Amino acid sequence: MAGTPLKVRWTARRNAVFANPKFQYWAAKLPLIRRIARSRAGTMFDLVVGFSYSQILRAVVDSGLLDVLKHGPLGASEIAGRIDLSDDATLCLLRAARALDLAEEVLEDGWMLGQQGAVLQADEGTQAMIRHHRLLYRDLEAPLELLRKDRSEATELSRFWSYAGALHGAAEAGRETTEYSRLMATSQQFVADQVLAAFRFPARARLLDVGGGHGAFLGHVGRAYPGIELGLFDLPEVVENAREPLASEFGTERLSFHPGNFFRDSIPAGFDLVSLVRILHDHDDGPALDLLRNIRRALDPGKRLMIAEPMARVPGAEAMGEAFFGLYLWAMGSGRARSAEEIRAMLAEAGFSASKTVPTPQPVIASIVVATA
């Protein structure tokens, strides 16, 4: 072990101690560290059975149980008739939901929403995400097979997000299109809330949202800052679909529309601020750097780029960045979650003069990096 860094030696020793059954028995006996040992055991148990929790959550959402419990207290038999399950199956689901604080038995056989259930029942955006995750779970049924696949091979998620499919409203039978629209509208609100809570926009400026889709993010900013002029850059068919709804709310004099492909076409110049909202992490390093260079060429010195998306290695949100989004984007076939430090290094390589991170209230939803041209 000579020459081995101290951190490596310490980590190896720690792991050997923690894995020793005698240490585990001893730790469980000592009052001072029993709570820590139990917490770690609980965390491990949650990792082992986490998929079951997710499927309970999905069953609660898909069955409509949350909406039924909103009008409780109700007995299990009455609930069974409303969610099309047998009495025994309903009771099984209610008890599982109770364990996750989604349901609560306030009286004997009197069921209502639990605290987490009350929050979730009122949050259509999170419910939309839970329904959407069925695609990820299908791809993760054989995780090693997924990781061994060439990323160009089709998956459930890649088919959903295909630029020829749901992303531009051309999904088969319209089902994926509807799900896509709902998912984007609600999830963009989550990100917009974080951005508006953490980043101070200029009172009067020109903002261009690159890859802004149907304008959900622009709408949130426009309502919060009436003095900002709003620009949308996306593929021609996307911009065309966004034109009328945005114009009806904000008026044509406040808006500009810029159809194009941000990998092939120049980004429009003359804007004070460019936003990239959940765009960079969708692309591999080469295309992502090309996009940043394209934006840099469009910005005059002193103008800014704001990047908002879930990021890796954020304290308090580590699992969301590299565990969830790491595999989600792998299954999608493109992109990866990057740390703020990695993004800032890419920004410097793209020619930006400076960059900084901006803390958000809920980094599990999104983090922010702002760069200056």
TrEMBL record:
<dbReference type="GO" id="GO:0008171">
    <property type="term" value="F:O-methyltransferase activity"/>
</dbReference>
<protein>
    <submittedName>
        <fullName>Methyltransferase</fullName>
    </submittedName>
</protein>
<dbReference type="GO" id="GO:0032259">
    <property type="term" value="P:methylation"/>
</dbReference>
<dbReference type="InterPro" id="IPR036390">
    <property type="entry name" value="WH_DNA-bd_sf"/>
</dbReference>
<dbReference type="Pfam" id="PF00891">
    <property type="entry name" value="Methyltransf_2"/>
</dbReference>
<feature type="domain" description="O-methyltransferase dimerisation">
    <location>
        <begin position="46"/>
        <end position="104"/>
    </location>
</feature>
<dbReference type="Pfam" id="PF08100">
    <property type="entry name" value="Dimerisation"/>
</dbReference>
<keyword id="KW-0489">Methyltransferase</keyword>
<keyword id="KW-0808">Transferase</keyword>
<feature type="active site" description="Proton acceptor">
    <location>
        <position position="281"/>
    </location>
</feature>
<dbReference type="InterPro" id="IPR001077">
    <property type="entry name" value="COMT_C"/>
</dbReference>
<dbReference type="InterPro" id="IPR036388">
    <property type="entry name" value="WH-like_DNA-bd_sf"/>
</dbReference>
<dbReference type="InterPro" id="IPR016461">
    <property type="entry name" value="COMT-like"/>
</dbReference>
<keyword id="KW-0949">S-adenosyl-L-methionine</keyword>
<feature type="domain" description="O-methyltransferase C-terminal">
    <location>
        <begin position="170"/>
        <end position="353"/>
    </location>
</feature>
<dbReference type="GO" id="GO:0046983">
    <property type="term" value="F:protein dimerization activity"/>
</dbReference>
<dbReference type="InterPro" id="IPR012967">
    <property type="entry name" value="COMT_dimerisation"/>
</dbReference>
<dbReference type="InterPro" id="IPR029063">
    <property type="entry name" value="SAM-dependent_MTases_sf"/>
</dbReference>
